[in-house]
Amino acid sequence: MPGWIRRHRARLAFSLTMAVALAVILALQLSPRTDSAELSIRNPAPNGARAAAEILGRQGVAVQQSESFEDTLASLAAARREGSGSTVLLYDPRGFLAGERLRQLLGAADRLVVVSPRLATLTGLGGTIRQAGVVQEPATTLEPGCAVADAEAAGAVSADQGFVYTGGSICYGAGGNERGLYASAEDGRLVVLGSTAIIGNRLLDENGNAALTLRTLGSEGHLVWYLPGVADLGTAPSPTSLDDLAPDWVAVLGPWLAFVALLAVIWRGRRLGPLVFEPLPVIVKAAETAEGRARLYHDAHAVGRAADNLRAGTLVRLAAALRLGAGATADDVAAAAARHLAREPLETISILHRSPQTEAELVSWAQQLSELEKEVSTT
Hints:
Largest sheet: 7 strands, mixed
């Protein structure tokens, strides 16, 4: 048995890797989807509303999140055919819905709960409820102070960064009974709630937040959690993309094919083995190399680079001819050449350190270097 395992260890490792990868992909696909949208029932973060949706679901309320106007109307129509009442929670902080759609939504739902609505949203609904400012600090909780059954049963609620409204039945008054965090139309079909903190995950378990949320949103058997998006602006639909045309199974098959391709690359790469350096039976003469490099310098007009190479070669040959060590500097070579030729050191240094700027100057200087080498070698 151990021998069989050693002979087939590569296949066993490959099979085990495939099984683990398949298990991970299936787990990711089957796990509950989450997002980061504010007040979304799929958002477990403090600014989400997943906790409220799960509690409502356990109480028998069918909670469905919608992100388009058409899906919301379809859900309401389906609930009406089943004989179930429907509530719509609308959270539209950017005001994507126009007045016509807001009134259509109000007529289709048995109850519409609007959270922190803008002035344009309240105007589009056409009711008597209007904005009246914000909750003044340092108030963090508010008492009901009204005869609405839901508010009386819930008690005090959080008022963090809340808005207050006028019109209809006012509860949780701030700065007087004419303005409140909670406003309800006379028939109770429209409710305006001025704070997301009451429904959000962060403060749901404090004060009477959970009680008010459950009583306000759970009065009917079907709850549509509507978070409008850019598509609800009513503009022309965007062109179909590849994501829209692709079937649903591509989301599972695509990562799997990418993983298999990566394994294939690793497998073939290991079979090729490491690179092997082998000397080729080619001999290139030094003269050909020098001429080829000279042509490259000429084509690039690299006068400075060519001058550096000529100077370096001259210094090496002069140092060898004058029997100087490998550590001799350019000034040492120039001084030794001047002593050897009985010249002034400045004359030799000026020749070796000259920097030609044009090709003509480079040719003239190269001739001077050649003459200096000849003089040193023949003297």
